[in-house]
Structures are given as C-alpha cells and as structure tokens.
Amino acid sequence: MRVPGVVFATRELLPQAAGDKALEQVANVATLPGIVRASYAMPDVHWGYGFPIGGVAATDVDGGGVISPGGVGFDISCGVRLLAAGVARDELDPERIRRVMDLLDRTVPRGLGRGGLWRLSGPEELDDLLIGGARYAVEHGHGVPRDLERCEDRGVLDGAAPGEVSTRAVERGLQQVGSLGSANHFLEVQAVDKVHDPETAAAFGLRQGQVCVMIHCGSRGLGHQICTDHVRAMDRELQRYRIDIPDRQLACTPVDSPRGRAYIGAMIAAANYGRANRQLLSEAARRAFATALGVGLELVYDVSHNLAKLETHEIDGVARHLCVHRKGATRALPPGDPSLPADLTEAGQPVLVPGTMGTASYVMVGLPGNDAFHSACHGAGRVWSRHQALRMVRGERLHSELEARGIAVRPASYRALAEETPDAYKDVDAVAAVTEGAGLARQVARLVPLGVCKG
DNA sequence: ATGTAC
C-alpha cells in the first residue's frame, strides 16, 4: 500500500458477510500508482468490480497517477436527480397518487434492453448528445434552461471524445436515451418526512411534507460497453507501462497517456449521456405530474456518483492536479465553492442519497474540511448479493407488503423487485448519520417513498 | 450496472 486505507463506518456498517472482499479492495486501491492521501471508503461501502462501491481515490496526474475504469464503475455517470413538486403530501389522497403512478408506469421506459423516450436520428446526432449532455437535451426542447443551473457541471462536461466510443457502444446507446434501466435504478415519488436543517432545506427549495421526484439512473448500455472496451484495452497494456496491481480488475493506465486520455474522453461522453438521460426522464415525470395532478416539478439538483474528475486539491500544502475517482460516492462541495450555482453558494451542494424502495432517502449538504476530496456516501449500500436476495424474497410478496404499507409499486419485473428488497441493504438512516458523524456531509432532509417506478 | 459470455 502506498497510502493508508480509511473506512468511514461503524462496526455495524462494515462489510462483514463471509467472503466479502470490500475491505481487501480498499487496500488494493491503495497500491495504485500516483495515489495520494488515502484510499477511502464511504459508510455505504460494499464489494464491487476492482474498486469497492463507495470508494474514493485520487491520483496525482503530474506524478504518473493512473485512471482506472474500475474506479468509475460499469455504469459511468450513474447518478441521482431530485425534483420538487408544487404540491404537499397532505394534498394528495391515495387515489391521486395511484393515478400519477399509473401514468408513470405507462410512460417511463425501464427494464433490461427496451427503448428510450428520445429516438435519435442516428450516430451523428448521438455524437452531438455525447458532446452536449443535458444542455443538448434542453436545447432540443427537453426541459428548461433553469434545469441546467441545478445540474453538476451545468449538465455537460467538456472533453467528450465520441471517436473513442466504439460502434458497439453507439449501437447500444442509440435506442436508450430516456430510459431507467434495471437493478437499483428507479423513479420514485417521495415526500419530505423530516427536515433536519430548515435553512438549507429552504435554500434547496424543500420543506416539510413536500412531494418530490427522485430519479436514479445512468448511461445504460453505452456506458457499460465503454467500460468493457477500455478495461480490456488497459488490461492488455499493463506491462507496457510496468504497472503492477494486485487484481486485474484494477486495470489502469497513466492519466497522462494516449490510453488514459482515450478513456477519459469516452468516459466524459458517457457522463454526458447519463445527464441527458436523467433530463429526458425528468420531462416524462413532468408530463405525468402535469396531466395527473396539474402541478410542476422544479429541479433541486442532479449529481453523478460514478465518475472520475480532474480536480485541483491541496496536498501537503501544495495545489495538485488530481484525478478523483468516485465510485458509488457523491461529490459534496462545501458552502462557498466557486463551482456551485450562485443560488447555492451560501448553502453548499445538495448531496442526494437514495435509499431503498421501502425505506428512506436523504438530502445532505457538503461541508468544509472533508478530506476525502469532498466526497460522501451515495446510498444505503448492499449487504446481500442479488443471488442471496432472490433466495430470501419473492417479488410478488414484497410487492403486496409494500402496497400494504401505502407505497404504490410499479415494478418492471418481480425478479428485479425481489433483488432490490430493502432487506438486501444497510440501514440508510445509519448510513446518513455516520456520514454526518464522520464530517463528510450534513443531513438536510429525510424523504420517504409514496410510489416507486422500478427499473 | 449490463442485449447477466467472445
């Protein structure tokens, strides 16, 4: 290990299933060339591909630091978007919630494969979207300019290289703009159940009882294919760069190399695709809310939790150019950060933490003094594998249990629903509390689900 | 996460 491994957790939140490799992965990441400060794990850490999910690692770009696709994840730019509805929970009876959920059920594309909301004209237009991200979507009528003000990076990262995206990735991506996908992805109707910090909540446009929409999805088959392509290419070139790693899933290459630049260009293209995807899904939610309830949805924030970003941080008193990998970890900018939108500068960055369909989700806010390169948790974190969840739970039964608790569930499939049983996850309330206790971010509001449109 | 395998 070149640096320590630092895990923010209580004993209860530590991965402890027999054979779980998450902590070993924290140590493996600490061996990467150019890593600085520490290999970090957030309280929701669990076993992933190469890097743990919930892992944060920064490498020194000018000191031979590497970039690793496994430190970003297969679902490049997977992230969360929160919208605030112009209606309160006590204004909606169960019948009106059913009505909007039925409409979402019919209009939100989801599940493995399947088409998306936006049929692009062809590869040329996809290239434009990979370069323009959510901004491209808004320019083509999918949303309003204010949406972009509330997106990380204003909805688009510079530096996309569509030429580094394989034709196979393009083929997969063409049909899926505006689709949730499956597994833990969802579109939920939620209500603010508790406000921990009224002043910050107000700055975010949230108040007690407020109905919200939370969208969790990523870059679908396009991001997955880019990850697959570039892991393979880096794996073949490890010896050329004399990189010695304890796990081939950590395949990596210097950031400042042709292969590193190629991956970053493709990764940014996928990031922009993921942002456009969430923008399209927001518009579907807006149509459903307008039709069923006659109310609008204002964007609170949109943030990725699977991404590597080139950022400047001070290391031992010197400003360094770093490649910060956040895999299942949310950037959490503190108040005053210049890259925040003007109306959030005083409050800090909203940190969106989706829980499970039967429990809570959190809105947190970034804090000063976060040594993990301004990063925080991204969710509850799995404790059961999907396979184990399927052995323990039947989707039909879970569906009726959630409905009996007043949560309207619209699943893509019962199998996928069972895999996502709340029992398969850590206690999100504990994850949020420990994230705050560790000084990574502060709790602002707790949200509970009213309806779940499940991928 | 994922047309759940080149």
What this model shows, in words?
The chain has 455 residues and is an alpha+beta fold. It has one domain: tRNA-splicing ligase RtcB. It is built from twelve helices and 17 strands. The strands form four sheets. Strands 5, 6, 7, 9, 13, 14, 16 and 17 form an eight-stranded mixed beta sheet that branches. The protein has a five-stranded mixed beta sheet with strand order 1-2-3-11-10, with helices on both faces. A two-stranded antiparallel sheet has the order 4-8. β1, α1 and β2 form a beta-alpha-beta unit. α2 packs across α8. The protein is globular and about 65 Å long. The two termini are 39 Å apart. It binds one DNA strand of 6 nucleotides through α7. Keywords: GTP-binding, Ligase, Manganese, Metal-binding, Nucleotide-binding, RNA repair. One of its GO terms (molecular function) is GTP binding. InterPro entries: RtcB, RtcB-like_sf. One of its GO terms (biological process) is RNA repair. It comes from Streptomyces kaniharaensis.
> Can you tell me the number of structural domains?
1
Highest-level CATH class: Alpha Beta
Choose one word for the global shape: globular
> Strand pairing plus helix content: what structural class?
alpha+beta
Strand percentage: 25-35%
Distance between the termini: 39 Å
Helix proportion: 25-40%
* CATH architecture annotation name: Alpha-Beta Complex
Which runs of at least 5 residues are low in confidence (pLDDT < 50)?
none
By CATH, the topology is tRNA-splicing ligase RtcB
Our Rg estimate from Cα atoms comes to: 20 Å
What about the largest sheet? 8 strands, mixed
Order of helices and strands: EHEEEEHHHHEHEHEHEEEEEEEHHEHHE
Number of helices: 12
The CATH superfamily is tRNA-splicing ligase RtcB
Binding site for Mn(2+) 1: 75, 185
Enzyme class: ligase
Subunit structure: Monomer.
Keywords: GTP-binding, Ligase, Manganese, Metal-binding, Nucleotide-binding, RNA repair
